[in-house]
Amino acid sequence: METIFFYIIALVALGSGLIVVLCKSPVNSALGLVNTFFCLAVFYVMLYAPFMAAVQIMVYAGAIMVLILFVIMLLNLGTEARKRYTHGVVWAALASLLSLVTFLVFIKKGQITGAAGDITKDVVMSVGHTELIGKTMFTEFLLPFEIASILLLVAIVGAVVLAKKEV
Questions:
Q1: How far is CA 93 from CA 18, 97, 106, in A?
Q2: Nearest to residue 81, comparing CAs of 73, 35, 53?
Q3: Listed residue (18, 19, 12) closest to 40, CA to CA
Q4: Termini Cα distance of the chain
Q5: pLDDT in tens, 87-123
Q6: How far apart are the C-alpha atoms of 150 and 101, rounded to whole Å?
Q7: pTM of the prediction?
Q8: How far apart are CA 137 and CA 63, in angstroms?
């Protein structure tokens, strides 16, 4: 039953991804991306990672998509996307085909490394997802976390500058 549910959600995620790529309207593409984010959250739940599923929905499907829709509507990308749509389709299709062939070659030629980390399923179940993520984020990955926060601050300032009529 779980396998059938996985395949149904995977099919919906692939369909939503195709909507993101093939849709002419940027707003419809953004809504397809929201649906893809929800499918990813379902995958996290199926992997016993409810914290990551909640973060996926709150951060990506919520905050990031609001920011993307704000920029789309602020810059009025609907008319520009229709004008330039036909020029890049062939190049995007070729790039996608090349990426797919490269991916398949790596999968076929690759080997499983057998490397295992320190954190096993038993450790996650005993300690908890949130505590492990918090400890790792604020010890080993503190500098990348701070750099990401600075980049988000710069994006917010840029959005405010773009939204103002006179600077």
A1: 12, 6, 20
A2: 73
A3: 12
A4: 58
A5: 667 777 888 899 989 988 888 888 777 777 788 778 8
A6: 37
A7: 0.60
A8: 20
